[in-house]
Write a structure and sequence with these properties.
Dna Ligase, domain 1, 12 strands, flat, 331 residues, 3 domains, four-stranded antiparallel beta sheet, alpha+beta, Alpha-Beta Plaits
Length: 331
Amino acid sequence: MRDPVTLVVVAREAASLHTQLLATLHTALPRIGVLDPGIFACDLAGTEELLGAPSRVARRVLTRCARLGTRASAGIAPTPFVARVVAERTPPGEVRAVEDGRTYLAPLSLDVLPIDVKVRDELRLLGLRTVGEFAELPRGAVFDRFGSAVARAHALARGEYGDVIRACVPPRRIRARRAWDDAIGSHEQLVFALRIVVDEIARALARDGLAALRLVLRLDREDGGPLRIDRTVLPPTRESAALLRSLRWALEERADLGLVIGCTLEVPEVEPARGRQVGLFAPDGARREEAIATARFLREKLGAGVVLQTRVRDSEARLPERASEWVEVIA
C-alpha cells in the first residue's frame, strides 16, 4: 500500500483568478480538489513514476501560477489538513515537505485547528496552549466532553485523520462540427444530416461513461447570422436516438432556419451515466413521445407494475381512494 502524499497549493491573490488558476492546475495535476477559494489540493499517492517526485511537481505548479501573476506557495504532507497548514506557512514561491504531520503540528498554536473559539478558550483554561498538548489528550475523553466536531479536530492534531479530497477530473469539451457544400433548407434534411454529428457526440459520451444533460447547437447559415439552439435533455442520456429526437423537436419549433451550411454541436453539461435519477418530464416542453419512451425504459429496467399513472374512476365518489385508480403507463 502506497504512503499517502497530498499537495496543497495556496494562492495569495485568488479572488479574481480562481477559475484561471483551477484551469492551469488541471494542466499539471491529475485531479484537483478545491478546499477554499485559491486553495487547491491534489492526492499524489502513486503518481511519482508518471509525474515525478512530489516536490518537483509542486515547483512546476508554482511556476505556472507565477505566469498568471499569482504568488503561491505549496505544502506536501501525508494528509490534506497538514499540507494546507504547511502551505499557508510557507513563503510565496517556495515548497515545503513534511513527513510527520503530528510532529510538525505539535508546537503550533491551537488557532490552526478547526474548533470553535469557546472550545479553544476552554482548552486554554485547562492549560493547553499548543496542538501537541491537545493531541496528548485521550481520544475518548475528548469525544465525551466536547463531541464529534472537536474529536475530529483532535484526530487532525494527531495526524491520524485525512480528509477525502473531493476532486474533479479536468473539464473536457465534447464537441463535433460539420460543414456541407450544399445548403440545407428543410427540417427533414437537416435532421438527417445532424445524425452523423449526434453519433459522434454519443460515442464520446459512451467512451467517458457520461450522459448529456444539455445540448447547444449552433447552425451556420448562408442567408443570415448563426442560429443558436439550447436544449435541456431530460432524462440525461448518451443514446444517439434520444439526443437526435430532442434536437428534432427543437428544430420543429423554429420557422426561421434559413439555408444551413454547417453546424457545431456541444455538450456543456454532463453527469455520470450510472447512478442517476431518471425523470419523466423536461422543463423545455417534453412531449408525449418522450414521456412514453422514458416509461418504456423504466419498465424494462424495473419490471411491470412500477411505472404508473392515475385515472379517474368515479368523480362522484365520496372517498378519495374510490375516485381514482393506478394503471400502468405502458401495458
